[in-house]
């Protein structure tokens, strides 16, 4: 079963909340891009304290597009945060992150940039709860999917038949089908959902594509 997860790529907490409320009736997960400008050319909402007292029925997946996530990932341990994803290129000690996440009943994912060779993920396959292919340059929504990632998905799927594989960036109808066929299990989509006139239909169209 391939899961479609709406992605929020917004500069302010108010916009994050607005988008969460828009998709709450149609999904059980939401992916939130977090960026403080250390790893991306732009900044996005990145203040975990805004989650204090925030209520939602959704499971939150936090994508930390920040350098040295070891210094701050634990500040995201809030009740609805079920998964934290860090960038391989920015991470020094993934074992430390995994252990702390698991001790707090949070999944730990590892992501690679579109230009990063798939083989760097090999050491993480027995540790990460999920691997992610970032199929666009980090930071901005609305970019075109880099088709080289189909190959990368297939290589990891062949090595690790059961690991969840997530694709983030440029996912739309057509791309979703090819990603699923290559072996992806989680498809993160921002513009394809939030730029649509009918959000419910946009999510359904992506689900029907796979």
CATH architect. name: Alpha-Beta Barrel
CATH topology: TIM Barrel
Q: Return the average pLDDT rounded to an integer.
A: 95
Radius of gyration: 16 Å
Give me the count of strands.
8
Summarize the biggest pleated sheet. 8 strands, parallel, barrel
The number of distinct structural domains comes to 1
CATH class: Alpha Beta
C-alpha end-to-end distance: 9 Å
The spatial strand order of the largest sheet comes to 1-2-3-4-5-6-7-8
Low-confidence stretches: none
**At the fourth CATH level, what is the homologous superfamily?**
Aldolase class I
Dominant shape: globular
Query: How much of the residues is beta strand, in percent?
Result: 15-25%
Would you list the SSEs in sequence order as H and E? EHEEEHEEHEHEHH
Helical content stands at: 25-40%
Tally of alpha and pi helices: 6
Task: Specify the structural class.
Answer: alpha/beta
How are the SSEs placed, and which strands pair?
Layout: E1 3-8, H1 13-23, E2 29-34, E3 59-64, E4 81-87, H2 94-103, E5 107-112, E6 130-134, H3 148-159, E7 165-168, H4 175-182, E8 186-189, H5 191-194, H6 199-209
Parallel strand pairs: 1-2, 1-8, 2-3, 3-4, 4-5, 5-6, 6-7, 7-8
